[in-house]
Amino acid sequence: MCHVIVTCRSMLWTLLSIVVAFAELIAFMSADWLIGKAKPSSSEEGDDRTGGSQEPYRPTLGIYGRCTRISHMQFSRRDTLCGPYAENFSEIASGFWQATAIFLAMGIMILCTVAFVSVFTMCVQSIMKKSIFNVCGLLQGIAGLFLILGLILYPAGWGCQKAISYCGPYASAYKLGDCSLGWAFYTAIGGTVLTFICAVFSAQAEIATSSDKVQEEIEEGKNLICLL
Fold this sequence. Notes:
By secondary structure, this protein is an alpha+beta fold. It has one domain: Butyryl-CoA Dehydrogenase, subunit A, domain 3 (Up-down Bundle). The protein is about 50% helix and about 15% strand. The protein has seven helices and nine strands; from the N terminus they run βαβαβββαββααβααβ. β4 (about 65-70) and β5 (about 75-85) form a beta hairpin. The protein starts with a strand and ends with a strand. Mean pLDDT is about 85; it is low at about 40-55 and about 75. It is found in: Membrane. It is a multi-pass membrane protein. Belongs to the LHFP family.
């Protein structure tokens, strides 16, 4: 018989696991890892003649994507164009970024799998006599290691030609040059920290769902058990 067990700690772990997976996925897909040096609009001369104001913009560069501004001379309008600069894996700008993409993708796949499984832990707490919470916590720890490896390797690619075109000639491995770090990089770091917190907290979720109070309510014949 399936017993639906919901506790404060298990629900918090489930929600946090889902949030971490989505945060890492969004960061990985974003082009806002590096914010390039300010560049004037390509219609700068036209603006000078018409007395328009100059509004420099800062293009952004991700692991495999980028955002830049395209000026429309006819309508004096500027649009920001975002999309992948690499059509396939081999076209990613740096070998270090290729390794980063691999490690982050592996970590995110594990986190998404755990997030999916965590939803069902309300009904199924163990499989083959092993706690799902402990197994998921172990997987989250492994995913965190993959994420750390990816984040360590990422700055080593700042010396590639693509990064130099955005960050200036002084950019090199672990040196930003004229660039600054975007929100996606910080989100990936925050998600990695939360991944390890989830891995540790999974043990608390397991303890909460196998506590004496839960066992007492199961013995009383209750199928829906909610505990704070």
